[in-house]
Amino acid sequence: MTVLTVDLVHHPAHSVLTLHGELDFASSDRVPPLIDAVVKAGRRRLVVDTVGLTFCDSRGLRALIHAERALAALGGGMELVNVHGRLLRLLDITGLTGVLAITTGPGAGQAVRK
């Protein structure tokens, strides 16, 4: 088991949440307070960098969906970047690739670097 570590950085137009480790039953409750922090900072756009994410279960997916819905309700949105491997497969199998904004290819990290 890999512990989830998170890093939240606010930029002028958006916030970047970087995830490393496992987003699962044991760690998914760490996401909602971070979404609250994004909203309180006045941001409506969130980039979630998943390059270091090694595992995600249904509770992790639920946390990501909750984040997207919370930001959409405020007129904003969320983008998952650097999506790869098992996470990409899980999002595809569950049909979430058609629901969430996902960037996997070249330039996936551009929003993260800005």
- In round numbers, the mean pLDDT is 90
- Spatial strand order of the main sheet: 1-2-3-4-5
- What is the SS-derived class? alpha/beta
What best-fitting shape do the alpha-carbon axes yield?
globular
State the order of secondary-structure elements, H for helix, E for strand.
EEHEHEHEH
What is Rg? 13 Å
> Which bin fits the share of residues in helices?
25-40%
User: Looking at the chains present, what oligomeric state does this protein adopt?
Assistant: single chain
Count of individual helical segments:
4
End-to-end separation: 32 Å
Proportion in β-strands: 25-35%
The number of strands is 5
Sheet of most strands? 5 strands, mixed
As residue ranges, the low-confidence spans are none
